[in-house]
Write the structure tokens for this entry.
Amino acid sequence: MASHSTVAAINGLTSRWAAALPPGGTVLAAAGVWPLLGLLADAATGPARQELSAALGIPVDDAATAARDLLSTLGATRGLSLALGLWTRGTLPIESAWLDRLPADVHGQLTGDPVSDQLRLDAWAAKCTDGQIDAMPITVNGETLLVSASALSLRTDWIRPFTPGGMEAETGPWLGKDLAGLYRSTRLLNRVGVADTAAGPLTELQVIGAHGIDVHLYLGTPEATAGQVLTAAVATLHNRRAMVSGDRLPYRDPGPGLSVARVPSEDGEPMLHVSTVPFTVDAHHDLFDSPDLFGLRTAADPSQGHFPGISAEPLAIQHAAQAMTATFSAHGFRSAAVTAFSGIAAGVPRHPFRAREISVCFDRPFGFLALHRTSRLVLNAGWVTDPDAFEETSCDR
């Protein structure tokens, strides 16, 4: 998988991006943005190079190699697909040294006709995400000389599926809504845990998927914001000592959405009961809304060129955006993100035993991270505010 420094850098960008999130449900993939920033940084000069290096979180001289390695390793990981595309106008001379550092067969041509170019770019986005994203997140025009894009798709099936049903929230913003619910029980108490974080107590549920790709759900206090919960969640990935697992949690209510009790049992074995909701979250992020976060403030200044490593012609960033979707269901999780930059000139039976029983319920807004299990690389991060509604036929699907 990616190197430790690259994982730390991408997860750091995820945390900073999450901290800047506006209210509402959303999903983001810093892993889709980061390699594009690395390839730009490698070709940049002056303040733009310094700002991109700061956003990357690694020395800029290592950026291109790290970006290529990330593209290669993610693309070779089962359950993941990562494609890179580069399109340039024939009138823009491209430095061969920079092209040689890109993966093979990624370079295409822009015709200069915005309509036909847009159709080709949109078709690329749809093809590379199996139709989950049907259009490029940016729009080309007559001034567009260069487009660089990444398409990151993720699919994992749960090792043990959930049972669908209905759910009624007892408190909070989902109270009174007819919600779809997902349920399952396991004897593995360490799938749940609680960490004491700067945002307050944080409950984590690990949902284990195939191919080493998991999704963790996070419930904070009712007052905690999306940014606070997700930033704290990423921090716990690298500080597992802070997480107290279910077999060591105190009784009663040790964390948000949690209850721990000692109950009569037929066999004396512990049990974890999980209740959550299915959801689909869509988002469109204009990276220029937070130019300093992505190191794009100077790079977007069209009064001068910033990327002599790409072309002898002066270039500036015209647009930078990400479109993303993520779906959590009874059987698995799938997501897709397309990130693009464009450049312009410039019952009551008898129970003889007693056992630990834990119940965890996600019945109000919560966060999630999709990650590579062994490296702890965060592939997606999101916040759920509008779960799926319950339909009578949903249990029969």
